[in-house]
Amino acid sequence: MLMYNEDIKGFFSSREELNMPDYLTLEYYLECVGDIETALAHFCSEQSTAQWKRVGIDEDFRPRYAAMVIGLDVLGELPQLSYSVPHSETGKIHACRVTIAHPHRNFGPKLPNLISAVCGEGVYFTPGVPVVKLLDIGFPQEFLSAFDGPKFGIAGIRDLLKAYNRPIFFGVVKPNIGLSPEHFGEIAFQSWLGGLDIAKDDEMLADVEWSTLADRSCELGKARIRAEKETGEPKVYLANITDEVDQLINQHDIAVKNGANALLINALPVGLSAVRMLAKHTKVPLIGHFPFIAAFSRMEKFGVHSRVMTKLQRLAGLDSIIMPGFGSRMMTAEEEVRDNIQECLQEFGHIRPSLPVPGGSDSALTLEAVYRKVGSVDFGFVPGRGVFGHPMGPKAGASSIRQAWDAIEKGLSLDEYAIGRPELMAMVAVENAKKQHS
Amino acid sequence: MLMYNEDIKGFFSSREELNMPDYLTLEYYLECVGDIETALAHFCSEQSTAQWKRVGIDEDFRPRYAAMVIGLDVLGELPQLSYSVPHSETGKIHACRVTIAHPHRNFGPKLPNLISAVCGEGVYFTPGVPVVKLLDIGFPQEFLSAFDGPKFGIAGIRDLLKAYNRPIFFGVVKPNIGLSPEHFGEIAFQSWLGGLDIAKDDEMLADVEWSTLADRSCELGKARIRAEKETGEPKVYLANITDEVDQLINQHDIAVKNGANALLINALPVGLSAVRMLAKHTKVPLIGHFPFIAAFSRMEKFGVHSRVMTKLQRLAGLDSIIMPGFGSRMMTAEEEVRDNIQECLQEFGHIRPSLPVPGGSDSALTLEAVYRKVGSVDFGFVPGRGVFGHPMGPKAGASSIRQAWDAIEKGLSLDEYAIGRPELMAMVAVENAKKQHS
C-alpha cells in the first residue's frame, strides 16, 4: 500500500498512548534507506496490518492490530549499508535503534507464531530496511502467563544433585562419536567417580544404529547407579534425545525408564515449540544445546541477537541452557556471553531461572576465569576433551576439575594446589608445555 | 585435540577412496585463518569425531565416523575477514570453497540431527574458520530413501484444481490481520469468482481469538463450495495452521473437516521436523511459507544458503514452497531465486517436485516478468494487495491477474489487452500514474 503522510502517522505512538499489556516490545537495530519515518511505518505495517482497510470501506485496523514505533534513536548516517543487500529504495542511509510495540493479539502465546511475527517476512522484507537485527523482546505478564517455563530450573537441578554453593560440573563424553554403549558407559562411570555431576552425550550423538538411545541409556543408567553407590553422591546421565519431533515423547520415555535423569535437546534443530511440548511432558530436567543459533546471531548488525534465543529457550522450558562461552575460541564477544547468562538468571515474571552453561574447550585451567566472569556459582561448566582427553584418563580428568574448584574455594593458585595432586598437575603441565612451545 | 601432521591427513580423502553412498556431500564457503589444511581438518573433526580415540587405547574412529575433505578450491587470499568475528587463530586469511563428505551414520535420516551436523556447533565454532556459509547438501539415495517428501507435489495440486499448462493463481487475503471470519470469507469468495485458484491466509494469520481457525475455516469452507458452484471450477482455501507443534495434527483435522483443502505452515518457525510429521498425516497439500529464513541466508558469505532450506522443505514434504521472489523489492539476487525454483523442480531421487511460489508485491503487472524468469508454467503466483487492494475490489483484482495471463498466452501487451477490460485497465492505469509521478 502506498504510504501517505497521514498513513505514516498511524504507525507511530508512545507507551503512554498504548495499553502496554497488549503489546510485546521489540528492540531492533535497523539500517534505513531513504526517509526514516516512511521506512519505519513500512516496517510496522509489513509485520502487522499490511493493508489496514478493505477497499471502499471506511475502517482502520491500525489502532487495534498495528505494530507501532514507540522509540527511535537515530544512531547516525552511514556511507553505505553495513552489508551488501539488494534493495529497491534509494536515499541516505541511517542506522537506527527502534522500539516497536507489537500487539500480541495478532498471534497469541504461541512460539511459532511469535517467531513469524518478530523475525518473519515482514521484518526482513520491508522496503527501505535491508539490514535488520532483532536485539531483544520484552514480554508483558499477560503474554508470559500462558507459558510454564522450566519445570525444575536451577533449584531443581541442584536438589537433584544435592549440589549447592558451587558450579555444576558437566562433561561431554568423548570420543563423542563412535563408542559402543558399553565403552561409553565405562568412560562415563570413570568420570563420575572422578567427580563429575553430569556425564552427557555430545549434541551430535543421539539415537543411531551403532548406539541406540535404548541401549545407551540402559548401559548409562546402570553405570550411573553404580557410580552413585560407589561415591555416595547423586549423579546425572544427560541423554541426548534430539530426534524427529514425533519421536521426542517416546524417546523421553525410553531414556528416563532406562535411567537417564536429565535430557539434552538441540533446541533450534527440533524447534522451540517442540521443546515447549517436551517440557510439558518431561519428568526430568531438560538441557538445551545451541546448534544453528550462530548462523543467524553471529553478524554484529544482522539477524537475531543470541539473547533473544536464550530468552525464548527459557520461555520454552529449558532448565539449563548450554551456550557459547568466554574467550575468542567461541567467537562470541564477552558482553554477549554475559547477556546470555543474564537472560538465564534475571527476573522473568513467574518463569524459573535456567542454569547457564557457557562452554567451549574448557578444562581445569579455564574454570577460574569462567567463574570470575560469570560472577556467581550459578553456572554449569562443561569440558569435553578437558576431562575425557586427560592424559591419565577420564576419572583423573574429572578429578582435575574438582581439584581446580577446591583451589578456587581455598584461594590458592593452580600451580600451588597441583602439588601432590597428579590429576591437576597433569593439566598444569600441559599448559606449561604449551607456553614453552609458543 | 591438538592436531599434528599425521592427524590432519586423517581428515582428507577423495570420492574414489570413500564409499560415497555412506556420505552426504556438503558444500561450504569458508574463510580460513592460518594454515588452510589445519583449519579444514579441525572443521571436519569438530563436526564429527572431535576426539577419535580413547586415551591409552590404540584405535581410530576416523575411517568410519570422520567427516572428510574431498574437494578444495582456494579462491584467494583476503586482506581481512568479510565480516568482523572474534576468533582465536592468527595468520593469513583465505577464502575457500570446500566439499566435505559427512558420514550419515553419525546421525541417521532425521532432520533435527542432520541440521545439528551440517550447521551446528562444529560448523560454526571451528578454530581457524570464523566465517562459514553452508551452500548445498547432496544426499545419496541411501539417505533419501527414508523420506517420503511431498504427498501431492505439483501434479497433485494441478489435479486438485484441474489446472494444467498455466501457473497456479494464489492470493493472500487482505486486510491480512483484523478481518472477522465472515468478512474474510466474503473477500475470499469474491477473489475466487474473479479467477483465483487459491485464496490463502496470510502467514501471520493463524488461530487467534478474534478469528479462530475453527470459525474461519468453517466460513471459508462454505464460501469455497459456493464459489465452486458459481464458477464450475475447483477452488482451494489455504488455511494457515501454523501453531505449537503439539497442536498441528489437531489443527489439520479441524481445518480439513471444515473445508480447507490445502494447509499453510511456516516451516522454520514450527521446525522442519514438525513439517515432516504433518506431511505424514496430511490429507491435503501442504504449502510452506518462509519466515525466519532470511535471518540466516541473506548474508552473501555467512550462514546458510536459502537453496539448502528449499531442499530441506521439499525433503520434509511440502507440496509447494513460497519463497522470496524476483526483483530488488524482495532483497534476493535473481540467481538465488532461480536456485530456489530449481531446487523445487529438479530431479531429487524419488522425491516429488514441489510447486515453487516466488512472491513479493506481485500484481497483474508483474506476472509476465515472473513467468519469463521462471521459464515454465510450473509456478504459483501470489499477489496480496495486487488482488485485494485493487481499486475495484478483490473480484476485479483476481480478474486482472487472469486477464494478464490471457494476454501472455495470446502474446499481447497488457496495454493492448486492457482495452475493454476495466479490471486490467485499472492496474495498468495505476502503473502509468506511478510512472508519471516518478
TrEMBL record, chains A, B:
One Gene Ontology biological process: carbon fixation
Broadest EC class assigned to this enzyme: lyase
Protein name as annotated: Ribulose-1,5-bisphosphate carboxylase/oxygenase large subunit
GO MF entries: magnesium ion binding; ribulose-bisphosphate carboxylase activity
InterPro entries: RuBisCO, RuBisCO_lsu_C, RuBisCO_lsu_C_sf, RuBisCO_lsu_N_sf
Domain spans labelled Ribulose bisphosphate carboxylase large subunit C-terminal: 153-426
Keywords recorded for this protein, A-Z: Lyase
Cross-referenced Pfam families: RuBisCO_large
Organism per entry: Chlorobium phaeobacteroides (strain DSM 266 / SMG 266 / 2430)
EC identifiers of the protein: 4.1.1.39
UniProt xrefs under Gene3D superfamilies: Ribulose bisphosphate carboxylase, large subunit, C-terminal domain, RuBisCO large subunit, N-terminal domain
UniProt xrefs under SUPFAM superfamilies: RuBisCo, C-terminal domain, RuBisCO, large subunit, small (N-terminal) domain
Keyword Lyase carried by entry: yes
